[in-house]
TrEMBL record:
Organism listed in the record: Streptomyces galilaeus
CDD domains: HDc (cd00077)
SMART domains: HDc
Pfam families: HD_5
EC nos: 3.1.4.-
Spans annotated as Disordered: 413-435
Protein's name according to its UniProt entry: HD-GYP domain-containing protein
Length: 435
């Protein structure tokens, strides 16, 4: 990550300048310093533990500051912890400045929103009915600001379209930050109670349990990703012909699923299906996968068994869910001319229809040993021509719409190998080869 684009660095500098502007009123603010410094120190110490053990952020402390102090003082709470946080990848200074700037801006905006709705007076008076609306609004503003900032840095850093970079960031942060907002509100109310700040700090103990559960979830997701990577690498080693193809199909499948409005959990499962759609090639003899000449009818039947092999290979991987049906049926066609079972129309599971379109699109837009890559518009036109016979028109329309809007920017970690020349006559003999 040392080669961060110049645009991303400029974006970080602009965010840092904005954060400093939020802190300028501190020079004239009469807020007592000791509560602010106490929360800042608590956040700095707790942040190191939270990131190392739980891969999380101490949002309850930040939100408690937003509920207790004026905006400039609240924006100071995350600053020391962010600037002193551990950084696993370089450049460390830039990453620390970015963390500090995004949190400072987010907490400042949340505190201003909370104060504008009369939240500070309600917290001081422990007025329960009046507490919730300002707190909810502050949480929503914090999530919105962080989502906009994160989307803004992802666009230049990763070379993504701005809309795609921001997609889903707000909704994914809403649930965890909302729970932390409730804890932050409890801290703020207890801070003004007769028991004082000590009682407020006790709120963090149950939060530790929730962080542990959240960390377990992330470890489980990491194990899922490692399983997927291992299977894809095994396929790439066995069949260099499709190196990088699996990742691109997974990406195109994800784009289609999101365009169709599927929820994020299902989108993730369909992405897994796209990545693993050819995992059954591990059960096909290598000599057939690497054969340069035309396939005999018997050899073709052997290769056409790879969806069933893939279904069996992934049988024990429970987190794949309906992705296994896509692995089994991604070569089925709406008119019944596909394999392995010749399913027709709606008999083909929806994830399989998504992956079929993504698979065909990447096959046409990638250079193969027997054909040159087609331009993206030509590939989309071919998909539209075959829609209704081979492919589900809904999936084709979704892919066409998302590419027309955002373009096609495949992110692939594997390089396409230089393949030996092959006679064009062999092209129709390859299962899955497109006209």
């Amino acid at each position: 990550m040392d080669g961060i684009p110049v645009r991303a660095r400029v974006y970080v500098v602009c965010a840092a300048v904005g954060a400093l502007c939020c802190l300028l009123p501190l020079t004239t603010d009469r807020t007592p310093w000791w509560p602010v410094l106490l929360l800042a120190a608590l956040y700095a110490c707790g942040e190191r533990v939270a990131r190392r053990r739980f891969a999380g952020t101490l949002y309850p402390v930040l939100l408690a500051g937003a509920f207790l102090f004026p905006a400039a003082a609240a924006a100071l709470v995350p600053l020391p912890g962010a600037l002193l946080s551990r950084v696993e990848h370089g450049p460390a200074a830039l990453r620390r400045v970015w963390r500090a700037a995004r949190l400072t801006l987010g907490v400042w905006a949340a505190s201003r929103t909370h104060e504008a709705l009369g939240g500070r007076e309600a917290v001081g008076a422990s007025d329960s009915p009046a507490l919730l609306l300002p707190a909810v609004a502050a949480v929503l503003v914090l999530c919105l600001v962080l989502a906009v900032l994160d989307g803004g840095i992802l666009a230049p850093a990763e070379g993504l379209p701005p809309r795609r970079a921001r997609h889903g960031l707000f909704l994914r942060s809403l649930a965890p930050v909302g729970v932390h907002g409730l804890a932050g509100l409890m801290m703020a109310v207890l801070w003004h109670s007769p028991y004082g700040p000590v009682a407020a700090l006790l709120v963090l103990f149950p939060m530790g349990v929730s962080w542990w559960v959240f960390a377990q979830y992330h470890r489980e997701r990491a194990a899922h990703q490692a399983t997927i990577r291992a299977l894809v690498q095994a396929v790439d080693i066995k069949d260099g012909y499709t190196r990088g193809h699996s990742e691109r199909v997974g990406q195109a499948s994800m784009l289609i699923a999101r365009e169709l409005g599927m929820d994020e959990d299902r989108v993730e499962v369909i992405r897994f299906a796209g990545i693993l759609h050819d995992v059954g090639k591990l059960g096909v003899p290598t000599r057939l996968l690497r054969k340069n000449g035309p396939l005999t009818p018997g050899e073709r039947r052997v290769i056409e068994l790879h969806p069933e092999y893939g279904h069996e290979i992934t049988r024990g991987i429970s987190f794949l869910g309906e992705a296994r049906s896509a692995i089994l049926h991604h070569h089925e066609r709406l008119d019944g001319s596909g394999y392995p079972y010749g399913l027709v129309g709606s008999q083909i599971p929806e994830p399989a229809r998504v992956v079929a379109v993504a698979d065909a699109f990447d096959a046409m837009t990638s250079t193969r040993s027997y054909s040159r890559a087609r331009p993206v518009p030509a590939a989309l036109e071919e998909l539209r021509r075959c829609a209704g016979d081979h492919f589900d028109p809904r999936m084709v329309t979704a892919l066409t719409r998302v590419i027309a809007r955002d373009g096609w920017h495949p992110v692939v970690t594997a390089d396409e190998p230089h393949l030996p020349a092959q006679s064009p006559a062999a092209a129709p003999e390859r299962p899955g080869a497109r006209r």
